[in-house]
Every structure is written in C-alpha cells, then in structure tokens.
Specification:
The protein is mainly α. It has a domain of 56 residues: Orthogonal Bundle (Arc Repressor Mutant, subunit A), CATH 1.10.10. 59% of the residues lie in helices and 0% in strands. InterPro entries: Homeodomain-like_sf (IPR009057), HTH_Psq (IPR007889), WH-like_DNA-bd_sf (IPR036388).
C-alpha cells in the first residue's frame, strides 16, 4: 500500500523546525521521511510556499513525449517481459 504523501503545510512546518533546530535524523524520523527528503524540502522551500497548503506537491510534472516508434516500443515491452520471466 502506498504511503500518504505529505501536504505542503506539514512540509513547511518541517522546514521551519529544520532551520531552527538544524537538520537531523531525529527530525526526519518525527516527520516519517528520510533525511534526504527533508533536505530536498528545504531546498524547494520557495516552490512549496507558493503552492496551496493543502496540496501534496509543489510543482507540475511533465509527461513523457509521445511514442514515435510504436512497433519498436511494443517489441521492447515484449522483450522486457520475456527477460523478467527468464530471470
């Protein structure tokens, strides 16, 4: 089961505490995230602040470009399935 993502208001709370108390494993553990995630939140603070507090992400994600060679993609997909089966 996928974990519930952290809302921006909770991220901002963690950012403020990280700035005040300093970055630590214990602080990350209190927010149930990895220390690296906490660093990333601090780095992206301006984007998180500009987003809605109730949202769970700060920026829009881009989609992959449309597939140009559909036949090749299908063959690749079939090949990957065969390779996984033959592990």
């Amino acid at each position: 089961m996928r974990a519930v993502p952290h809302q921006n208001e909770r991220k901002l709370e963690a950012i403020e505490r990280a700035k005040g108390e300093g970055m630590s494993k214990d602080l990350a553990k209190q927010y149930n995230v990895n220390r690296v995630t906490l660093y990333r939140w601090v780095k992206n603070e301006s984007a998180i602040r500009s987003a809605k507090p109730s949202k769970t992400y700060a920026k829009n994600t881009k989609r992959a470009p449309p597939v140009t060679f559909q036949a090749m993609e299908k063959q690749l997909f079939e090949w990957v399935k065969v390779m996984r089966r033959n592990k």
